[in-house]
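F.,

This is the one I mentioned.
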C-alpha cells in the first residue's frame, strides 16, 4: 500500500511504530552480542525488505535525485555512530534508561539546528535544556549509592553522545526525505551506509562477530524487521502528518514503554532517583516539542 494511503490514519500508525521500536533495546539484550555486532546485523537484516520497498517506490515515482541519496548516506554514517553508542549505553545503564537518554535528541536537534542552520528554537525548547540536564545527572547515579547499571555514569555519557549522533542523523535524513510518498528509499540508503559504517568500525575495534549463534541471529532478525523496517517506516510515514503537539506526546510513549518492558522482561530495576531522572527527561522532551512551529519529523530512539 502506498505511503500516501497509509498516512491517512497517522495516529494508529505512529502508536504501532512506537510500540514496535520500544522493544529494540530489549531484543538487542536478548541477542547477547557485542554492541557493534548488534548494530551491524540490525542494519544488515533490514536491507532486503527495505530494498524491495524502495525499488517499488522508484518504479512508481522515478528514481530519487543523486543529491538526496548522498545526503541519506551521510545520515547513515551518523546512524552507525548512534547505534554503537546506544548499545554501549544499554550495556552500562540498562535498556530502559538508555532509551530514555537517547531521546535527549529532541532537545539536541533544536540546539544543533540553531547552531548549524540558524533556526532559533522557541523559548520553551531552551527552557527544557536544564530540565533534561537534571534528568541525565539523576540517571547517572552520581548523587546516590547503588544506582542501577554496571556503570551508570558511563552509561549516561554514552546516552548523551547517542543523542548527539542521533541528532545529526535526523537532521540529515530530514534533508534526504522531503518526498513523503517514498519513505523507504532514504531509509534504505541510510541503513546500508550504517551497516557499512558499523562493519568497518567493528573490524578496526575487533569486536564484530560475523558468525553469531543461531539464537542470536534469530533475535537480530526480529530486531531488524520489527524496529528498523516496520517501526521506522510507520513512524516516518505518520509523524509529518500529525500536529507537533500531538506528535510530541505520542513520542514519549516509546521510551516509557521501553522502561516498563525492560522491567518486566529483563528484570531491570532502576532506583527511585534514576526513575525521577527519566521522568525529568520525558517532561523536558514534551516541553521542547509541543511548541514546535512545524510537524515533528523525528522518530523516537531507535
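My design for it:
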Amino acid at each position: 500500500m502506498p505511503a500516501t494511503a497509509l498516512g491517512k490514519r497517522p495516529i494508529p500508525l505512529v502508536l504501532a511504530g512506537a510500540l514496535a521500536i520500544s522493544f529494540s533495546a530489549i531484543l538487542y539484550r536478548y541477542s547477547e552480542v557485542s554492541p557493534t555486532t548488534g548494530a551491524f546485523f540490525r542494519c544488515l537484516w533490514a536491507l532486503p525488505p527495505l530494498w524491495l520497498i524502495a525499488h517499488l517506490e522508484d518504479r512508481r515515482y522515478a528514481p530519487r535525485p543523486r543529491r538526496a541519496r548522498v545526503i541519506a548516506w551521510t545520515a547513515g554514517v551518523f546512524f552507525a555512530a548512534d547505534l554503537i553508542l546506544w548499545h554501549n549505553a544499554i550495556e552500562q545503564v540498562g535498556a530502559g534508561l538508555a532509551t530514555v537518554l537517547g531521546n535527549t535528541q529532541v532537545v539536541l536537534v533544536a540546539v544543533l539546528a540553531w547552531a548549524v542552520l540558524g533556526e532559533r528554537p522557541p523559548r520553551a525548547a531552551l527552557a527544557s535544556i536544564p530540565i533534561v540536564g537534571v534528568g541525565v545527572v539523576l540517571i547517572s547515579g552520581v548523587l546516590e549509592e547503588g544506582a542501577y547499571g554496571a556503570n551508570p555514569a558511563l552509561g549516561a555519557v554514552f546516552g548523551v553522545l547517542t543523542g548527539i549522533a542521533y541528532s545529526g542523523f535526523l537532521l540529515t535524513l530530514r534533508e534526504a526525505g522531503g518526498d513523503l510518498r517514498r519513505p523507504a528509499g532514504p531509509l534504505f540508503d541510510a541503513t546500508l551506509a550504517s551497516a557499512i559504517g558499523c562493519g568497518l568500525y567493528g573490524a578496526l575495534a575487533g569486536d564484530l562477530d560475523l558468525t553469531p549463534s543461531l539464537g542470536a541471529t534469530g533475535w537480530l532478525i526480529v530486531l531488524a524487521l520489527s524496529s528498523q523496517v516496520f517501526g521506522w517506516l510507520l513512524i516516518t510515514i505518520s509523524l509529518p502528518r500529525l500536529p507537533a503537539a500531538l506528535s510530541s506526546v505520542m513520542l514519549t510513549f516509546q521510551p516509557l514503554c521501553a522502561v516498563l518492558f525492560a522491567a518486566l522482561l529483563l528484570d531491570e530495576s532502576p532506583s527511585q532517583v534514576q526513575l525521577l531522572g527519566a521522568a525529568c527527561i520525558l517532561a523536558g522532551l514534551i516541553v521542547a516539542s509541543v511548541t514546535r512551529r512545524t510537524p515533528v519529523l523525528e522518530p523516537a530512539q531507535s
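The CA atoms of residues 148 and 215 lie 27 Å apart.

Talk soon.
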